[in-house]
Amino acid sequence: LIHLLSTEGLSRDILTHILDTATNFVSINDREVKKVPLLRGKSVFNLFFENSTRTRTTFEIAAKRLSADVLNLDISRSSTAKGETLLDTIANLSAMAADLFVVRHSQSGAPYLIAQHVAPHVHVVNAGDGRHGHPTQGLLDMYTIRHYKKDFTNLSVAIVGDVLHSRVARSDIHALTTLGCPDLRVVGPSTLVPENFSAMGARVVHSLDEGIRDADVIIMLRLQNERMSGALLPSSQEYFKKFGLTPERLRLAKPDAIVMHPGPINRGVEIASEVVDGDQSVILPQVTFGIAVRMAVMSIVAGNEA
Ligand code: CP
């Protein structure tokens, strides 16, 4: 693996190898994951052309724990604002001996474009591009599911909400189908969950109650208002009434079902606060696992495996 641009096309062996590698870096109880020298002498450039809290900071922590030198380019203060193109920006940063670019961009495909133009020894990791993909989120979601449920081949998983605009949903669907999940449902209104998602191997369901019934895993998604135009925008209250996950509705799922969310959450829109903060929520462990998964990805693509 030279770059990580998508979960689509990754084999079950590679997905499992990344998850297994991440287990070496996880330490939930004593939070001190020791620093390892796997990226010593390498420079990681975090390029976030779109806002981020979790992904940017966990990539930074992960790179530091791998002993890399990390540079976070402040895009809003960069010469991008003066009209410098994406590829010229990359060429200039490459001239500063970057080894690995972590890229988030509002345009689907931007990390692919960069990967086509960097030198062969430079690696690119997609940290979310448009609505296309968010592969490390997909991988940390798989890590979380495997941690709590052990195996994918007997699971019912429901992905609920604005699937249409969600790069997380696409990355999760590719990974879950490859890992053998036999019952994958995408759940939401027809405007946000079109029928063509069935071509990806998921069952399309337009009722929340039906979609989460007897599920082992529920992945809730935020309404991506920034990617919608007027006609699609539902009112928050109306949406919550029909598709918000409440404690009452959660009782339709298996009693030991876990509730996930990639964040940022909008309490009272797609999910009730009681569920976010409840016993079945694993939303914050997802964030913690993200560090280990990103350590695994960077150590694998940059050539020094754990
Ligand atoms: N899950 C996720 O990508 O969160 P951020 O946008 O905060 O990075």
From TrEMBL:
Transcription listed as a keyword: no
Reactions the enzyme catalyzes: carbamoyl phosphate + L-aspartate = N-carbamoyl-L-aspartate + phosphate + H(+)
Any Gene Ontology CC annotation: cytosol
Alphabetized UniProt keyword annotations: Pyrimidine biosynthesis, Transferase
SUPFAM superfamilies found in the cross-reference section: Aspartate/ornithine carbamoyltransferase (SSF53671)
Gene3D superfamilies, per the entry: Aspartate/ornithine carbamoyltransferase (3.40.50.1370)
Domain Aspartate/ornithine carbamoyltransferase carbamoyl-P binding: 3-146
E.C. no: 2.1.3.2
Pathway note: Pyrimidine metabolism; UMP biosynthesis via de novo pathway; (S)-dihydroorotate from bicarbonate: step 2/3
Protein name: Aspartate carbamoyltransferase
Protein's organism: Lampropedia hyalina DSM 16112
